[in-house]
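Hi R.,

Here's the chain you asked about this morning:
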Amino acid sequence: MLRRWWMALALTALTAGLALTATSASAAPAAAPAGAAHVSPGGLADLMGVSAAHTRGLKFEAQSTNWSGYAGTTGRYTSVSASWTQPAGTCRRGDQYAAFWVGLDGYNSTTVEQTGSEVDCVGRTAQYYAWYEMYPGPSENYTNTVRAGDHFNATVTYLSGEQFSLFIQDTTQGWSHTTTAGLGQTPALSSAEAIAEAPCCTASGGILPLTDFGTMSFTGTTANGSAIGNAGGLTEIIMIDNAGRDKDTISSLSGGENFSATWLRSN
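And here is the predicted structure, written out as tokens:
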């Protein structure tokens, strides 16, 4: 099994004189190329810097080469939750990857605690699985069956010290896991995220192609037990390619806790 890594890549938001630097976390594909990674240690602003964003309404906007979704980025975060339905991957040619997860930290820190699901295209075959990760430790894939259309509930909760509880439940298949894991260092507890992601990396360090997942929705997304729309430093993250084109679209928050991501392109 390959490691699931977190990576720092090109996410910077500048608003009202406040600089927010985001770090990226992700799920490693089961069939990722040899040497594939999900981490590039260090701050995002130091790597592949992408143009900054602006305020829109009461939230910030930021751009990333591999994250899209919403994050609370200021304050202290001890829990994050969301539900989603595992989207089907449309596999036409080549290998492609897409992960969907909730997590604490990673946006503006060098630690990340996350759990989610994934659909990877190995040629024309879609592979589905669920996982958790406590970076900088290795990722762990669950062996339970995951299929397109499965309904997931997931929560990451800070317990105390370096300990976290990572809960994921597939209500369609009838399984769940609550994993208690230590980070191995003092957690930052500085952000909470619900993310659709194009994992990293190719052998040259680039982002892996994003699986065509159609449209998927996060529902009931909360941070610290409240709708993520109430989170401090609420940031909408837009995934772009190297040409500055959107890889997917992110809807506005509905009810402060529901939003969708729609695939546009793989690279």
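One quick note: The chain has one domain: 6-263.

Cheers,
M.
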